[in-house]
Amino acid sequence: MPRLSRLFVRFALVYLIVGFILGGLLLTAKAGLIDQRVWGWLLPHADIMLVGWLVQLAMGVSFWILPRMRRDYRGHVVLAWTSFVLLNGGLIAGSGLTLGSIWFPGNWVLIVYVSGLVTQGLAVCLFAVYAWPRILPTITGADVRRQQQAQQVKLQRNRPRGSPPETRQ
Ligand code: HEM
Predict the structure, then answer these.
(1) From 148's CA, which of 27, 53, 91, 162 has a CA 20 to 30 Å away?
(2) Range of the domain at 82
(3) Average pLDDT over residues 135-139
(4) CB contact at 8 A, 131 and 55
(5) Do the domain assignments include residue 119?
(6) How far is ligand 1, taken at its centre, from the CA of residue 21, in Å?
(7) What is the pTM of this model?
(8) Is residue 160 part of a domain?
(9) CA of 42 to the centre of ligand 1 (A)
(10) What residues does ligand 1 touch, defined as CB less than 6 Å away?
(11) pLDDT of residue 158
């Protein structure tokens, strides 16, 4: 598994734990057992679970598993790395800071949360641009053999008259 995929998946698992804890706190608040200000964490919970966990896991696994253009060549990986930084920057700055809303309420919360969402949206678009050229048909062993045979036929046709036929070593 490439380094970027490992990072994506590890970050996704951390968000799963954080989002699960927030969800648990929301449930507890719903039962009336803790301070109702905890409802201020509903939006971060939704963002962390949907984008931090689910979307991030999908991005990490697809970076690893989508067909490569050539052996060990995964295309413009700088786009995927930028997307990783933007996604997590957007999550930490957006939802992370929004967690403070229960102690410091104000208009800033919505601005920060929406800016975080926009950054995450940008990251997802960038990743889509990166991944698009990697959506290729699967190359099977039979395809490779067919390609080799076609190449062999081409070589035989282009061979100068009288020269011995090509043999594979
Ligand atoms: C992949 C997992 C999860 C996803 C994508 C997810 C997503 C969401 C979203 C989008 C909302 C907002 C829904 C709304 O306001 O109508 C929500 C609310 C909530 N979630 Fe989750 N969640 C997940 C897991 C969990 C878990 C594990 C818990 C509990 C431990 C939990 C507890 C809650 C609670 C209590 C609410 C508030 C429900 C209400 O408005 O009454 N969630 N979740």
Answers:
(1) 162
(2) 3-136
(3) 85
(4) no
(5) yes
(6) 11
(7) 0.84
(8) no
(9) 8
(10) 20, 23-24, 26-27, 30, 42, 45-46, 49-50, 53-54
(11) 84
